[in-house]
Specification:
Protein FAM162A; 2 domains; elongated; DUF1075; mainly alpha; transmembrane helix; membrane; 4 helices; 155 residues; transmembrane; two-stranded antiparallel ribbon
Amino acid sequence: MGSLRGLRQAAGSYFRLYERGASSSLRLSRNSDLKRINGYCAKPQESPKAPPYTYSHRVPLHKPTHWERKILVWSGRFKKEDEIPETVSFEMLDAAKNKIRVKVSYAMIALTVAGCIWMVIEGKKAVKRNESLTKLNLEKKARLREAAALKAKTE
């Protein structure tokens, strides 16, 4: 058991030394062929056009639709639709949409509270008129029975 552990440690240290030596003498260049560097500072060859896989640090832009322009104005990002540039960033558009979502949710909360208050007021008026759902349902069923009886007599 002890000899296996020693063998593993020796193999591990050997590979670490090998990797350290290999990484200093061999480097992977941009066009992925191996290049030998002998301790000198070597400049990588630059290609005339940038490779397609590199990421430019520019923010991708989007041409807003008519509806998105309205959202940008409603969110308060711009005063008028004329002030909106030809292209805007996706982040700006997302921020405006999120602001509108929050405003719509606040409006829905306010409408729900107003509807609840209105139902309470209507319920209190119904109590004053001595109306209840049970009474209204019984009257409706009585009318339906009378209508069914009249229909049965006429047939």
